[in-house]
Amino acid sequence: GEEWLRRVTSILEHFPERLGTDQQREISLQGYLDDYIQEENKRVQRQITVFLPHSQQTSILPFRGIVEEYCRLLGDEESRDLKTRMAWKKYPQSMAAVQQLVTSTGLVASHDEAFSLDAVSAVL
């Protein structure tokens, strides 16, 4: 644990250790773990398949920042494909509702092979 933190990240330089309620050492981070991994140790970005509300089409987005990317995919007129543009024309209230729901809850309809079907209720 601690050796990995020292070798791969800058966490110990930024955040103090403290004892948790269980008397175990802990460090509270602000943001994502990847923010503190040193550049030479960066990992490949995890990708996730998301479902679009208006078609059977799926899209693959980076897991990190998925809510923003999903809303950009639906909302940015320049990024929209033909099906998405048609859905906004035909069902503007429904598409706006999806975008608002995703923005306010952080929930994105998705599928990830890494999760078993019994554990698909994770909030991102």
Average pLDDT level: 79
Report strand order across the widest sheet.
4-3-5
* Overall body shape: elongated
What's the helical proportion of residues?
A: 25-40%
Per DSSP E runs of 2 or more residues, the count of β-strands stands at: 5
Strand content: 5-15%
Treating each run of at least 4 consecutive H or I residues as one helix, how many helices?
Answer: 5
Uncertain segments are none
Helices and strands, in N-to-C order? Answer: HHEEEEHHHE
Span between N and C termini? 25 Å
Radius of gyration: 19 Å
Notes on the protein architecture:
A hairpin with a 6-residue loop joins β3 and β4. About 35% of the residues lie in helices and about 15% in strands. With about 120 residues, the chain is α+β, with helices and mostly antiparallel strands. It is elongated.
Précis, in short:
The chain is α+β, with helices and mostly antiparallel strands and 124 residues long. Helices cover 35% and strands 13% of the residues.
Task: Name some characteristics of this structure.
124 residues, two-stranded antiparallel sheet, 3-stranded antiparallel sheet, alpha+beta, elongated
What does the secondary structure layout of this molecule look like, with pairings?
Layout: H1 2-8, H2 11-14, E1 18-19, E2 25-26, E3 47-51, E4 58-62, H3 66-75, H4 82-90, H5 92-105, E5 110-111
Antiparallel strand pairs: 1-2, 3-4, 3-5
Helix pairs in contact: 3-5, 4-5
